[in-house]
């Protein structure tokens, strides 16, 4: 996979800057506390993540959604979490509600499909 250009990295950083940074430990706390949250798992070096985050960013603006972002660059920190929940790849979009996680790992989702997933 080719290295991302500085422009691609800057665009990714701009998009995730609108999201709330969330550590793997904070993810577990969200689930344990029965909170509702939308979390994007991804990393700047992943071309699929860069493609997906632009669409998620637009959806978050249009629907005024609060999105959290967990950088998956540190695989070790997320390993147990991903194994426990069967999240094999990124980008992953998590919809956490009442201690349960629904997720989708598909960078090809359209903005409409992202909206439908989040409202299901």
From TrEMBL:
Q: Which Pfam families match?
A: DUF6568 (PF20207)
UniProt cross-references to SUPFAM superfamilies, sorted A to Z: Thioredoxin-like (SSF52833)
Q: Which InterPro entries match?
A: PedC-like (IPR046698), Thioredoxin-like_sf (IPR036249)
Name recorded for this polypeptide:
Bacteriocin transport accessory protein
Species of the source = Neisseria subflava NJ9703
- From which lineage does this chain's organism come? Bacteria, Pseudomonadati, Pseudomonadota, Betaproteobacteria, Neisseriales
């Amino acid at each position: 996979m080719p290295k991302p250009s500085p422009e691609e990295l800057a665009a990714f950083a701009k998009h995730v800057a609108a999201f709330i940074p969330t550590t793997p430990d904070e993810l577990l706390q969200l689930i344990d506390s029965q909170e509702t949250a939308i979390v994007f798992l991804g990393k700047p070096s992943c071309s699929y993540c860069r493609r997906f985050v632009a669409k998620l960013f637009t959806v978050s603006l249009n629907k005024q959604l609060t999105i959290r972002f967990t950088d998956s660059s540190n695989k070790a920190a997320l390993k147990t979490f991903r194994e426990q929940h069967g999240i094999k790849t990124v980008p992953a979009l998590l919809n956490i509600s009442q201690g349960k996680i629904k997720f989708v790992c598909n960078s090809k989702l359209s903005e409409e499909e992202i909206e439908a997933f989040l409202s299901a």
